Amino acid sequence: MTRIRHFLDHNAGAPLLDAARARMIEAMDLAGNPSSVHAEGRAARAVVEQARAEVAALCGTATDRVLFTSGGTEANAWMLHQARPGRLLVSGIEHDSIARARPDAVVLPVDGGGVVDPDAVARALDALPGGAAGAMVVVMAVNNETGVIQPIAEIAGVARARGVRIACDGVQAAGRIDLVPLAGLVDFLSLSAHKIGGPKGVGALIAGAGVEPGAMIAGGQEFRRRGGTENLPGIAGFGAAAAVASARDRAADNRRIGALRDRIEVSLAAVADDVIFAGSNAWTGRVANTTSVVLPGLAGEMQVMRMDLAGIAVSAGSACSSGKVTASPVLLAMGFEDLAGQAIRVSLGASTTEDDVDAFVRAWTAMAARRLRTTVSA
């Protein structure tokens, strides 16, 4: 008998949507190269441009502002490619693709709730040698581990007042908050298809109005800014997923998913009085689907393995860092110190049910009780 699995790791990657799968299968049957001028090539080009329009609509921007990439990591690298050495500021809670990419960056601190203080951004910019001119600020919209929403409007105001560019990792924001105002605030926004039910291995860089990013890869594709034959099935699936995200009632989704997240936190707090939900005290709030659960005394990787054995998929942080038994840099930046290695991330999605949540609560409760017995016997 096949054991029922409960998938609670949507921040690592959401299940592929039926609409995305169907569009990808159609695209796979097209023989033409999107750059070819014959009928077959034009048919393939039409698929790319339909997807570009769908991603643009999700962001409320023009189609020529959407530049397809191999995923969020490449889009982040492209953003960083625009920043001059010694003129880059990044928050202390960024994804590894930003945090580890530029050792020359000035690191912006966060408070205990995981929020970047706009005033701290202003002070850091004003402290740059020669002033802020020519600098770039990079702050993610939604943290991938805690779900904490960053005050991008306020930070963008600080940047604009100093003539500074602002770039934003929007990978975890898509489908959870409105991207239209966000895209209008920043010079660059990165997205990844598989966070919204599209395929893995495709993403986009969204350039702000009037912003002309330098080429990432020489070649004729993507408005001569990213060479290489387009990933036609991936882009097609991305467009379909973006169309679904645009059509969904996001407020209703967030109410349902948020109620499930709250149910988890209330249930866990009732059985372990020392459990901590990192970022739950953020003054900016969290997206509805994410909780970072700190269980003192038990390593996060061990918690993930015990959940896996119980048929439940969660993570110990960013999927790009899985397999590494290390403390979370995000929680370290938030001041969790020794507890930074004792957390798991639970992330819900459109397919999450009450049964999934109840199964997790049962397994976590058993794990917490086992931890307590082990502590007492020791």
Automatic annotation (TrEMBL):
- Transferase among the record's keywords? yes
List each copy of the Aminotransferase class V domain by range.
7-360
Top EC class of this enzyme: transferase
Q: Which cofactor does it need?
A: pyridoxal 5'-phosphate
**Signal sequence, start to end:** none
Catalytic activity annotated for this protein? (sulfur carrier)-H + L-cysteine = (sulfur carrier)-SH + L-alanine
For whether the record's keyword set contains Cytoplasm, the answer is no
Pfam families given for it? Aminotran_5
Q: Sorted alphabetically, which InterPro entries does this protein's record hold?
A: Aminotrans_V_dom (IPR000192), Aminotrans_V_PyrdxlP_BS (IPR020578), Cysteine_dSase (IPR016454), PyrdxlP-dep_Trfase (IPR015424), PyrdxlP-dep_Trfase_major (IPR015421), PyrdxlP-dep_Trfase_small (IPR015422)
Write the Enzyme Commission number(s) for this entry.
2.8.1.7
Sorted keywords for this record are:
Iron, Iron-sulfur, Metal-binding, Pyridoxal phosphate, Transferase
Which family does the record assign? Belongs to the class-V pyridoxal-phosphate-dependent aminotransferase family. NifS/IscS subfamily.
Describe its function.
Catalyzes the removal of elemental sulfur atoms from cysteine to produce alanine. Seems to participate in the biosynthesis of the nitrogenase metalloclusters by providing the inorganic sulfur required for the Fe-S core formation.
What protein is this chain from? Cysteine desulfurase
Organism expressing this protein natively: Tistrella arctica
